[in-house]
Design brief:
By secondary structure, the protein is of the alpha+beta class. The protein contains 6 helices and 11 strands.
């Protein structure tokens, strides 16, 4: 992205953390900031969602990445209805950057041709109470304590919420961590309990998915399941579940995934 994330703003980006020009980064904490949806957390921190207009190069490239990363065969009717840039509170972004810098200082990943801290763009599917399409039209979300989607939007990913979901799933192959995957089709599965009816198409549902930066650092590569794992071994920053490993009940991982703790 070269230009400001705000629609119809043709100024160049000055703040890469938010993809905003100088004018809009100054407005970020004001009531005048032109976001599509605003969510205020119980801590009085504001997250802004900016809808990316269909037909723009950013929408097209993000949509194409999502489709290219969909590896499940025989899927019909797949499409992207809406894409939003998520602008988290500045304190959360600052904490993330501090953590990333610490991981980089230990691993020197940039010298290996990787991103700082071995940062990757991965997917996370989740439950949510919000009716996503309706919410976008009304320019608000539910902000319910029971809505994982709103919780992530307001507070980013929270390790204390691990294992809390509407699917009744307690099995955690790589332990008690936050899970991400390079495959949109795998992440899609974990949002199926949050699927909501499409407002304009009978029989069609819509789900929420996050495409997010994740600091992986040095990834541990286990061969066995460890549901009680709460951190990788000393010297590692994340856990990498590789395809064909970590058997459970006769089944191995069909697609790779990562866990951070």
């Amino acid at each position: 992205m070269t230009y400001c994330a705000i629609s119809r703003c043709n100024k160049k980006i000055e703040c890469k953390d938010y993809n905003l020009c100088l004018v809009h980064i100054r407005e970020l904490n004001s009531t005048n900031f032109p976001s599509t949806i605003q969510l205020k957390s119980p801590q009085n921190l504001t997250t802004h969602l900016i809808e990316i207009p269909r037909g723009t190069s950013e929408f097209s490239s993000t949509e194409q990445k999502f489709l290219d990363d969909w590896v499940k065969e025989n899927t019909q009717g797949l499409r992207v209805d809406a894409i939003y840039n998520i602008l988290l509170p500045q304190s959360i972004v600052a904490n993330y950057k501090t953590y990333r810098a610490g991981v980089e200082s230990r691993g020197n990943f940039k010298s290996l041709g990787l991103q700082e801290g071995n940062e990757r763009l991965l997917y996370h599917g989740t439950d949510h109470d919000c009716a996503v399409i309706y919410a976008a039209v009304m320019q608000r979300l539910c902000k319910s304590n029971n809505c994982a989607g709103c919780g992530i939007l307001m507070n980013s990913f929270n390790i204390s919420k691990v294992g809390i979901n509407k699917q009744g799933r307690t099995f955690q192959r790589l332990g008690q961590g936050l899970y991400f995957t390079p495959f949109s089709s795998k992440a899609h599965f974990y949002g199926h309990k949050g699927a909501k009816p499409h407002p304009n198409e009978s029989g069609r549902t819509c789900r929420m998915m996050f495409m997010t930066k994740v600091v992986l650092g040095k990834a541990w590569q286990p061969n066995r399941v460890d549901q009680n794992c709460r951190s990788p071994p000393s010297g590692f920053d994340s856990t990498w579940g590789r395809k064909g490993t970590c058997p459970h009940g006769g089944a191995v991982l069909n697609y790779e995934e990562y866990a951070v703790y």
